[in-house]
Amino acid sequence: MKILGLESLIFGVTDLEACHQYLLDYGLIRVEKNASGGVYEALDGSTVVFKLDTDPSLPAPNAPAPNIRETTYGVPDQKELDKIAAELSKDRAVSIDEEGTVHSIDDSGFAIGFRITRRRKIIAPHVGINAPGQAPGRALNELGVLDKDHPRTPRSLSHVVYFVPDHKKAEAFYADRLGFRTTDRFINLGPFMRPAGSQEHHSLFLVQSFNPHMVGLNHFTFHFGSGYEVFRNGWDFAQKGYKSFWGPGRHIMGSNFFWYFNSPFGGTIEFDADMDIHDDTWQPRALPTSADTSQVFLFEHVKKWSPGA
User: Fold this and answer.
1) pTM above 0.70, yes or no
2) To 10 degrees, what angle do helices 227-239 and 16-26 make?
3) Model confidence over 56-102: pLDDT tens digits?
4) Residue 66: is the preceding peptide bond cis (ω within 30°)?
5) I need a surface site. Which of 11, 52, 222, 234 has the fewest CB within 10 A?
6) Total count of domains within the chain
7) Is 181 a member of any domain?
8) What is the torsional sign of CA 283, 284, 290, 293?
9) Domain assignment present for 11
10) Domain span holding position 75
């Protein structure tokens, strides 16, 4: 299966206005706001969609609201879409809506969808780094620190993380039925996985739930253009009163910069940048779960300071 990556995340929420404001402050572009909910997108057209959790058009929940209600993946063409529908139809219900999106359920009870990709080319400023010993990444007199009003819009939907009741069963479904590759894993916790049509370290992370009542969303995130954007956007986000949950820092698995915040979507949302990419020659690592394997460094968000203070 040549699944390209995430296209859209659909949520059932309890506070529409909080979700509208949150995604605007996060940096996404508003596509639609109405009495039922909203649609917000990144530069490549990947989206977050949300509606009230009581909306009958949403897929059935597998966890209390607010929470994720469906994860939609993109494929390159109708042939791949038909292959997925045929595969899943072997042992579970599959439906196809009026737009041609295939809908079903994974082995952990999460609603999943597949459609011909609507992602578009990203048009954004070049991100350059000046490092001694290599060609300059920025032109002469081009500044690395952008003006505070300079747009730092998320570029693409990066990954989603589920709490699952059985991480081995969940991993087998995505590997055996949908062709996902495991890139790394935390021992006894769960795998990082990428679809075959993507080289990004992971689009999906499956986390073992040790509490039968803890299922559903752990977190989701969009890619930003650089570590600078993660730190700068996260800083601005915190100044607006959003509660930092974890970060800023840099992960080991995937190498991405991160900063997590509490959200009204049932889990945390992450600012993310500079993730590793892999091909099929990559040998997955297996690490114990600990603070030392979760991040290479971690900073604490404090007030600004000046040497003249």
Assistant:
1) yes
2) 140
3) 999 999 999 999 999 999 999 999 999 999 999 999 999 999 999 99
4) yes
5) 52
6) 1
7) yes
8) positive
9) yes
10) 5-120+150-298
